[in-house]
Write a structure and sequence with these properties.
344 residues; alpha/beta; Metallo-beta-lactamase, Chain A; 2 domains; seven-stranded mixed beta sheet; 15 strands; 19% strand; disordered N terminus; binds zinc ion
């Protein structure tokens, strides 16, 4: 028989599948990831450490790390053309070979550019990313991600499938020649296999979809909200970045980790309090606002508002009405209103 967690996973999957089909609620804005016309700006973060920042609010960012012997690239972007833009950006800085390419998750916007990298480049991803890529055809993956580019797969017509060949489970350390790069898996977050690339000497981290850019909140797209919270706490225990290059959005400082933890904790508690009142959640979420303490950048306000409604709705379907687990919370049991304020 299914245990509760399995049932939750199945319901989450069905919920997400519905959202990606025709029944998407009017308040949900798909992330705008169209790479047409996107230019990547090279931003030096530290010696040998470079972010490649997209010039639109949410199209994919990338980056690369240069050691004495070799280069590591983070994410391959959405199309062959974007992958080539990354390769050209590396060539402007160094002639060293791109030895490694890391895919931070299994979504097309992070892996479709893989095929333009040299054959000698070793592509690395978390084992669950590779599992997903193997189990789902390229066509199916194009359809899943097409919602972020207006619904058509035409943009990816030239994409040739190239899968990572090297996997890791929890942590992997690579040496590029006097330059250490670490790959981490902290647990499920936005997706089942969100990977983080960390450069200890720069205290810089690439976080893919696990942490979006400055002034964002998380999006619990396909995973259990309480698991996402656990993964973020694990992140905080293991690494302490001062610079975060998100897969989407602006560069931020390390404080965003605490913000994500606080926000996910809030969503869990808020959805528990709603569940106790047994309200009609689909109607209720339409009226929700992001609590003002979670500051949102102006150019992603509408997108984040949709993520917030999704998170609360998703969490509501996952939480139990029994006693909350976080017994040490100071405002435990207090009623929280739709703007996140405690009701006296
Ligand atoms: Zn992404």
């Amino acid at each position: 028989m299914f245990n509760l967690k399995t049932l939750c996973l199945i319901s989450t999957f069905l919920f997400c599948s519905t959202f990606y089909a025709n029944a998407r609620p009017e308040w949900f804005v798909p992330p705008p990831l169209d790479p047409s016309g996107v230019e990547l700006e090279t931003v030096k973060l530290h010696d040998g450490v470079f972010a490649l920042m997209s010039n639109t609010p949410f199209a994919d960012n990338s980056g690369f790390v240069v050691g004495d012997d070799a280069v590591l690239v983070v994410d391959a972007h959405f199309t062959g053309n974007m992958g080539k833009q990354i390769i050209d950006a590396v060539k402007k800085i160094t002639d060293l070979p791109i030895k490694y390419l890391v895919n931070l998750n299994a979504f097309g916007d992070h892996v479709f550019g893989n095929y333009v990298f040299p054959e000698s480049t070793e592509i690395i991803a978390h084992e669950k990313t590779i599992d997903f890529l193997k189990k789902n055809s390229l066509q199916k993956r194009k359809e899943i991600i097409s919602v972020t580019v207006g619904g058509s797969t035409e943009l990816f017509r030239d994409v040739v499938d190239r899968l990572p060949t090297e996997s890791f489970k929890k942590k992997k350390k690579l040496n590029l020649g006097n330059k250490i790069v670490e790959l981490y898996y902290f647990g499920p977050g936005m997706s089942p296999s969100d990977t983080v690339v960390y450069v200890p000497d720069a205290r810089a981290a690439w976080t893919g979809n696990l942490i979006f850019g400055k002034g964002s909140i998380p999006w619990a797209r396909s995973e259990i909200v309480s698991d996402y919270l656990k993964s973020m706490k694990n992140f905080q225990r293991k690494i302490d970045p001062k610079i975060i290059v998100a897969g989407h959005g602006k560069i931020s400082d390390g404080d965003i980790v605490e913000k994500y933890i606080s926000y996910l904790d809030y969503v869990l508690e808020f959805s528990r309090s709603l569940k106790k009142e047994n309200i009609s959640i689909e109607e209720y979420v339409k009226t929700l606002n992001i609590p003002p303490e979670y500051l949102i950048e102006d150019d992603i306000k509408e997108l984040m508002a949709g993520f917030h409604k999704w998170n609360v709705l998703n969490s509501y379907k996952q939480v139990k009405t029994s006693a909350p687990q976080l017994k040490d919370r100071k405002n435990l049991g207090q009623k929280v209103d739709r703007d996140g304020k405690v009701v006296k």
